[in-house]
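Backbone-to-sequence.
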């Protein structure tokens, strides 16, 4: 019996993941990714980070062909959804060719441009209309291009986010974007319900640079004939959903209503909570965007704490400090041998660009309290995980200051959440119970496509089969030890930040 399938693409920094989902059962038929080794990031200067958009496409093609090679019936795909790394800037010319590498999310060069805009437009107006400072987001990155690469800027036909670029390639040239996407780039005015005239006017951008706006859940375009032949997907297959990686992760965990929380721990980490009313952090340390189910009639905003140095720190520890040849599960076991607080060793994990939670300061990664007579490799393994958790805790406290009640965190059983130590530490230091599920960004995008194409009537039907893995409760017996370790870490961080 033939099964109808949904295909979800997750355009990450490290790789492109492709996931097939059975429409009827909701089961994950297959998941693959490409490349197996982490995709390169171009860093021509300290604090810069770029990737070639064509590389994302080539990785998508390779991941799709992995599915075909494994014998999965690509001709039975009924809709495609896209999740993507947020805040990246893609500039294309009139022939829809990328003019330069994409300036991606962890690139810090645009901070001065965003800060200047925040001051010129006015903090009150920015926060009440954009819900954030322009900061280091896509609009500010485009301003950097305008000033530093003026000849290239003049050739720009349209600007896009990474997911918009992939949808364009799949459709053979249809260029569009979403309100959710524009809001993450600081192009959307929530009060005026249109592209921000403040941002466009201040930076000197023409509104024609902005693609056509389409709904997040809808048939946005269709797979063209040439791509269908290349990928083995039927021509005319609808591209029916796209969302940034953090909103999409929340979707994949069916986090759609006010008060619900989702967390991730991939290359970067995030805690994402849904608000039902317009609000913002006065210091703009956490970000507020339109959630995937945002509409003028129903306010659904996502409050995002993003930590750039999460899984990438753990990967660095593996390459440079962990005993040679061991995997992440063995690293977790070694880290468990060390007591809470690592005998005074702390790691500040902010070595992957400017951090929003630190008001866009770039403080780097640093290690504190090293005792040559006490600390060994295992201490560093645990201190890295604790440092990442403590950065989550710092941001969660800011979200609580905004009035969010956080007693439960939903997360996919993947990446950092595969570590029992990481989960236990996060639950214990925040006091929140963690629920782990079997899902990922590709699966969320696939089911999002099912909603957008009308195959599912709503998100509750789409995620009714979401598989629950386990619950991690706070370790009440060691609560004081976790909080003491956090307070030591926070004191050291404050000294670094100054």
């Amino acid at each position: 019996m033939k099964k109808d399938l949904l295909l979800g693409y997750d355009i990450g920094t490290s790789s492109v993941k492709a996931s097939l989902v059975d429409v009827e059962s909701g089961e994950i038929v297959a998941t693959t990714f490409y490349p197996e080794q982490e995709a390169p990031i171009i860093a021509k200067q300290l604090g810069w980070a770029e990737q070639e958009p064509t590389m994302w496409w080539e990785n998508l093609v390779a991941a799709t062909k992995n599915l075909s090679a494994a014998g999965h019936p690509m001709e039975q795909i009924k809709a495609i959804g896209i999740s993507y790394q947020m805040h990246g800037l893609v500039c294309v010319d009139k022939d829809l060719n990328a003019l330069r590498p994409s300036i991606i999310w962890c690139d810090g060069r645009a901070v001065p441009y965003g800060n200047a805009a925040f001051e010129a437009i006015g903090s009150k107006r920015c926060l009440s209309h954009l819900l954030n400072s322009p900061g280091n987001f896509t609009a500010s990155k485009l301003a950097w291009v305008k000033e530093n690469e003026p000849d290239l800027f003049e050739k720009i036909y349209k600007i896009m986010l990474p997911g918009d670029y992939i949808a364009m390639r799949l459709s053979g040239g249809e260029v569009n974007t979403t309100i959710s996407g524009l809001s993450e780039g600081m192009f959307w005015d929530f009060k005026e319900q249109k592209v921000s005239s403040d941002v466009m006017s201040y930076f000197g951008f023409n509104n024609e640079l902005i693609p056509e706006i389409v709904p997040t859940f809808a048939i946005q375009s269709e797979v063209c004939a040439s791509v269908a032949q290349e990928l083995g997907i039927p021509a005319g297959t609808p591209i029916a959903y796209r969302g940034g990686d953090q909103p999409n992760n929340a979707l994949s965990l069916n986090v759609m209503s006010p008060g619900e929380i989702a967390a991730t721990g991939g290359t970067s980490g995030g805690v994402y909570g849904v608000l039902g009313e317009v609000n913002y952090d006065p210091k703009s340390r956490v970000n507020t965007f339109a959630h995937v189910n945002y509409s003028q009639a129903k306010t659904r905003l996502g409050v995002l704490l993003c930590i750039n140095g999460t899984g990438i720190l753990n990967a660095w520890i593996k390459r440079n400090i962990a005993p040679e040849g061991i995997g992440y599960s063995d690293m977790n076991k070694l880290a468990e041998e060390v007591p809470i607080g690592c005998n005074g060793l702390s790691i500040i994990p902010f070595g992957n660009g400017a951090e929003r939670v630190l008001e866009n300061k770039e403080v780097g990664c640093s290690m504190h309290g090293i005792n040559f007579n006490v600390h060994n490799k295992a201490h560093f393994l645990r201190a890295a995980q604790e440092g990442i958790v403590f950065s989550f805790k710092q941001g969660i406290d800011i979200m609580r200051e905004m009035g969010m009640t956080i007693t439960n965190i939903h997360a996919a059983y993947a990446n950092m959440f595969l570590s029992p130590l990481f989960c236990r530490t996060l639950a214990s230091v925040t006091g929140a119970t963690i629920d782990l599920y079997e899902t990922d960004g590709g699966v969320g995008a696939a089911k999002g496509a099912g909603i957008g194409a009308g195959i599912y009537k709503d998100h509750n039907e789409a995620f009714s089969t979401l598989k629950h893995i386990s619950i991690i409760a706070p370790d009440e017996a060691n609560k004081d030890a976790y909080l003491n370790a956090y307070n030591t870490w926070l004191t050291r961080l404050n000294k670094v930040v100054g």
